[in-house]
């Protein structure tokens, strides 16, 4: 399958759609999930156009996971998270809904996750969580 450069995350990367950002550098963007499965649900995406983890060049995967760890530490410190679920869905069969590779960090327990991509969160609350994560980076 060819990469669709009109997917939501590609449009966020180009600044065509808004995002509540917590971290950005030349290779990676981290921003809040607007339909969080728990408070503080954050997404980390490499800027490389790749659909799934399987399509992502190894060096981009290696760099992105370093940023995933950096954001996880900020979630722990900034939000006082006791546990964090790292989730990565590759392929529609796995439940992937946005065809640009991304990692979910969800401060929760695997036993308590809300439904996936189901309910819009409260924007003001999400923005406040983002500020706490940013201040802990
Ligand atoms: P996946 O199903 O693994 O592809 O995850 C896509 C995630 O993106 C879901 O958790 C959605 O809630 C989230 N999402 C969809 N649209 C947006 C958006 N515009 N900004 C932030 N998160 C989004």
TrEMBL record:
GO biological process, one term: nucleotide metabolic process
The HIT domain, residue ranges: 8-115
Keyword Hydrolase carried by entry: yes
E.C. number: 3.-.-.-
CDD domains to which the protein is assigned, alphabetical: HINT_subgroup
Residues annotated as the enzyme's active site: 102
Key words of the record: Hydrolase
GO molecular function: hydrolase activity
Enzyme type, top EC level: hydrolase
InterPro entries the UniProt entry points to: HINT (IPR039384), Histidine_triad_HIT (IPR001310), HIT-like (IPR011146), HIT-like_sf (IPR036265)
Short motif Histidine triad motif, span: 100-104
PANTHER family, per database record: ADENOSINE 5'-MONOPHOSPHORAMIDASE HNT1, HIT FAMILY PROTEIN 1
Name listed for the protein in its UniProt record: HIT-like protein
Organism in which the protein naturally occurs: Acinetobacter stercoris
